[in-house]
Design goal:
Blueprint: H1 11-14, H2 20-34, H3 42-63, H4 66-84
Helix pairs in contact: 3-4
């Protein structure tokens, strides 16, 4: 499975033609895509990762815990990946 930007699909190019049948196919395809749930809310994911990174940073600062430092770095890297839209 992969994520796509459905807004970038050129339905007229894919289902060429101006017949009533072509328009019905285009409308059906758009309706099908629009009814699908969003894979994830990028903003909410980033907010959650930032919160987790901050919790790890606080724990690391308080207890000088190497695992917390590693977690903080992992969360920070995950934020970068999500912001870019992938690896």
């Amino acid at each position: 499975m992969r994520l796509i930007d459905a807004d970038k699909i050129d339905f007229k190019k894919v289902f060429g033609g101006n017949s009533e049948f072509a328009r019905d196919i285009i409308d059906g395809a758009k309706s099908l895509i629009d009814s699908q749930p969003t894979a994830f809310d990028k903003k909410k994911v980033i907010e959650e990762l930032k919160s987790l990174a901050e919790d790890s940073r606080k724990y690391w600062n308080e207890f000088d815990d190497e695992d917390a430092f590693g977690e903080m770095n992992a969360y920070t890297r995950a934020i970068e990946i999500v912001e870019k839209g992938g690896i």
